[in-house]
Amino acid sequence: MGLTGIQIFKLxxxxxxxxxxxxxxxxxxxxxxxxxxxxxxxxxxxxEAREKLSEASAPPIRPIxxxxxxxxxxxxxxxxxFRHEKTFYSPTGLGxxxxxDLSPEALDKKLKEWNAFxxxxxxxxxxxxxxxxxxxxGDGKAFPVLAKKIAEExxxxxxxxxxxxxVLKAGAEAAAVKKPILYAATEKNVDAMxxxxxxxxxxxxVKAESVEKLIPLTDKLTxxxxxxxxxxxxxxEPKQLFADQVVIRRAALKAGNxxxxxxxxxxxxxxxxxxxxxxxxxxSLISKYAGIVVMSDFRGDSLFPLLLERLNIFTDPQxxxxxxxxxxxxxxxxxxxxxxxxxNFSLTYFIVSGEIxxxxxxxxxxxxxxxxxxxxxAWAAGKFSGDAVAAFVKKSGIADKVAKKSIIIPGYxxxxxxxxxxxxxxxxxxxxxxxxxxxxxxxxxxxx
Length: 448
Description:
Layout (H helix, E strand, L loop, with lengths): L4 H7 L13 H9 L13 H11 L6 E3 L6 E3 L17 E7 L4 H12 L3 E3 L2 E3 L3 E5 L7 H12 L3 E5 L3 H10 L6 E5 L4 H11 L3 E4 L3 H13 L5 E4 L5 H16 L11 E2 L8 H13 L4 E4 L4 H14 L12 E5 L8 E5 L2 H14 L3 E6 L6 H6 L5 H11 L9 E4 L7 H7 L4 E4 L7 H9 L1
Parallel strand pairs: 3-6, 3-12, 6-7, 7-8, 8-9, 9-10, 11-12, 14-15, 16-17
Antiparallel strand pairs: 1-2, 4-5, 13-15
């Protein structure tokens, strides 16, 4: 970045209004300096300061919003080479390719199959985001028809692929509701493609034969006023593509090369003869460092592992995943059902809730906010102490849902039972198993 956080702070209005999403102007300045915020989120910065800060406020890799609707996502905006340095911010978008000579009936079938690939994991809905529509040879009339169909009849966002700017324009107009990505500007058509992208306000992929040949193309397009660019180095061999991804990321982050400071797109669908090999290539690209990956098809046994890998890599390692504090119904509990309590660490919740569900004993599960810590860690940190748990039980409202006041606490936190009995008059405190795998037998023995 051109300026330090303190230098940026001196140019800010210093209102500490919090409208930018952080409580103070100093915190906002530090986020700008590290590439974690954009200047536009400050409503009171002066025009003069905005001009001075334009360089400092831009992340080294430009963040780009892809698509519109429920599956829109951001790509780019990364600030580190390695996840353990801080975190990765923008999960890799996953897409599948269709040709424009596909019949509407066959496309319908594909979209329905692909849309069904949605998986719930740690409270999140994991699913792919994109369909890449490629113009079949000599087929320009069907292209906008299928683009319109995908945009209006599915939740997927679109990548429109053609060498002909006129065909791309027709497709983009037909699918305007989804704000599609245009693919691709090359050395031969850069002027026409740049003009089209600027006219329609859409992201544009820039494709060259190498990383070095991307630079004059991106410079020309940014000179035309385009900012939302996505890079395709042209490599279609895994070793070279992997090297290109690293070179582009390093050039943007370490060398401050603005010509390469954009997210990337890669096409495993053009690099392998079967989906299994495509999946292996995609897995490496999710970790290093593709913004978008396009495969030839979606299939459950290949897609699910990629979605899980993406979730793991793009989860902030400094912030535990949590679930919301509250009362959770497992099965259809009634006033006579058992009540259990645990912490809000996502993994703890899903293990415990899964074991309760496996017992087939309808139950109430209280989830207490312990800042994402597990039972043992929260207890050791004083966040799952007897008085704190008792206070939560009182305010949770669970007493209004059950006839018998008894609550099962984790076996690892057995020592808090005494304090809970003092603070929860009339409640029976039951010490449950130390291991979640023993919950089904415990509940069946006690309540069936």
